[in-house]
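Hi R.,

Quick one: here's the Ferric uptake regulation protein sequence you asked about.
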Amino acid sequence: MTSDDRARALIEARQARPTAARLQVLRALLDAGRPLSHQEVQQSLELDRVTLYRVLDWLADTGIAHRINAADRITRFSVSSAPHCHAHFQCEQCGRIFCLPEGAPILPGPLPEGFVLREIEMTVKGVCADCAHQG
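And here's the predicted structure, written out as tokens:
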């Protein structure tokens, strides 16, 4: 399935209209393979800032994408896996953020009875493979 097909399917699964702007932004997130900031998405698309902010907010509000609030205070967006319960890795040299593979234990044990898990935000910091190789 191409990123075009996947973007359309993700939007239509929410019973929403796949507008040109929604499709463009979602394709950019799918093709990147890593979380992107508003600025990074804007550099690759020809959308005005307001439209881009609205689309990113809509994608996050509908659960198609999720927001990643990093220590550098830049919000990044990534296509969601449901529920969003995986950690991220932020490179201390280049600042890029990567989704870490799912399956690694995030919680040390089960939640207390009656608690409902909705989301986990966890960022691991270090040096990415590209930066480690350069220096």
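The longest strand covers residues 65-69.

Cheers,
M.
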